[in-house]
Amino acid sequence: MKKLLLGLFILGSLSAFGGQYMDGQYRGLYISKQDVEVEVQFSLKDDVITKATYRRLFYKGNDYLKNDNQEYVQKGQGYLKVLDRITGKKIQEVMPTMYNEKEIEAGGATVREMKVRSALQYGLNLGPFKLTESHKH
Predict the structure, then answer these.
(1) Cβ count within 10 A of residue 78
(2) Tell me: the pLDDT tens digits for 30-76?
(3) How many alpha carbons fall within 13 Å on the CB side of residue 70?
(4) pTM, entire model
(5) At a CB cut-off of 8 Å and minimum separation 6, what does 108 contact?
(6) Alpha-carbon distance 94 to 110, whole Å?
């Protein structure tokens, strides 16, 4: 019995050194009123966000990534600052800090960090759509 408990303890300890999430690329969405407002793609390596990009930033018919209107350019830049802030950090450390109802800097009432957090969580729930080479074997 002691050997079994010791073995389980060692196995649990070893798995703690690896990440909670598989290394790979993830995609997640934030949907409101049947519109995909935020789609984010991010990569994890040992639970650290190594890269994050938006595939879509959309609200009330305006694409923040493709609109030349200065108002939407500013909102898009606010969203980009969020990704810059979380890149290089562990996903478990980042997620609790994103329950922010305040506006993202340079954004408007429609720009909420919580939307980005929801998209990240959705991606984690789905799992990676593409594994890194180390997990393919």
Answers:
(1) 19
(2) 998 888 999 999 999 999 999 999 999 988 888 888 878 877 777 77
(3) 0
(4) 0.76
(5) 71, 75
(6) 21
| CA atoms of 60 and 48, how far apart (whole Å) | 33
Handedness of CA 44, 49, 53, 58 (dihedral sign): positive
**Residue 92: CB atoms within 10 Å:** 12
Separation of alpha carbons 22 and 117, rounded Å: 19
**DSSP-based helix, strand, coil % in the chain, nearest 5:** 45, 30, 30
Residues 93 and 21: their CA atoms lie apart, in Å, by 13
Tokens in use for 100?
């922010």
- CA-nearest of 26, 19, 28 to 47 is 19
Beta-sheet strand order (sheet of 24-32) = 62-63, 48-59, 35-45, 24-32, 130-131
The per-residue pLDDT for range 105-133, each reduced to its tens digit, is 444 444 578 889 999 999 999 999 999 87
The answer to whether 45 touches 132, Cβ cutoff 8 Å, is: yes
